[in-house]
Specification:
single chain; globular; alpha+beta; three-stranded antiparallel beta sheet; 26% strand
């Protein structure tokens, strides 16, 4: 398995990734809807975001990667923000956010995806990353802890007003 940057060669795999969310985790499928509706524009937007081009207010440069297997299926998506220089990112979102496709969960894929992303973060010059998870999302907390995550504290988010567990992870 490997992390790949978004590209047009994964259009069919992305459609399957989205359909998995739509069928099995409808609440989070909306995040990927733009990719299903207009894949070309979606990929361009993700690549622009990585280069700091056309960023929306409050956004920072962010690399997007997909975890793909040997069959070129997308198992998960992970985002690495280059900095956390605003209140929302510094408090509740952190450097890294990720989603596993519902049918790819509980198979160790999240742990691997985060491990690979930490190497990408290091290559971006980030030495320590803040990663957050809903406090009651025990699976995500285990993924972070299995990659060396050191618990910082629980905060109540301002944008998402629920308990959020914060972890710091060394990228070396």
């Amino acid at each position: 398995m490997e992390l790949v940057s978004p590209s047009h060669e994964f259009e069919a795999a992305f459609a399957e990734f989205y359909d998995d969310f739509l069928a099995n985790d409808h609440e989070n499928s909306e995040y990927y809807l733009a990719g299903k509706q207009d894949f070309t524009s979606y990929v361009k937007h993700l690549l622009d975001e990585a280069n700091g081009v056309n960023l929306a207010d409050g956004y920072v440069p962010c690399n997007h990667y997909w975890l793909v297997n040997d069959n070129k299926s997308i198992l998960g998506a992970i985002r690495i923000r280059h900095n956390i220089d605003n209140e929302f990112l510094a408090l509740e979102a952190g450097h890294i956010g990720y989603d596993m496709a519902p049918l790819s969960r509980q198979k160790g894929n999240g742990k691997l995806m985060l491990k690979l992303a930490l190497a990408k973060a290091k290559a971006l010059g980030i030495h320590s990353v803040l990663i957050t998870a809903d406090e009651d999302n025990l699976a995500s907390c285990r993924v972070i802890e299995s990659n060396g995550g050191q618990f910082d504290r629980v905060v109540i988010g301002k944008v998402f007003p629920n308990p959020i567990a914060r972890y710091w992870v060394d990228c070396s």
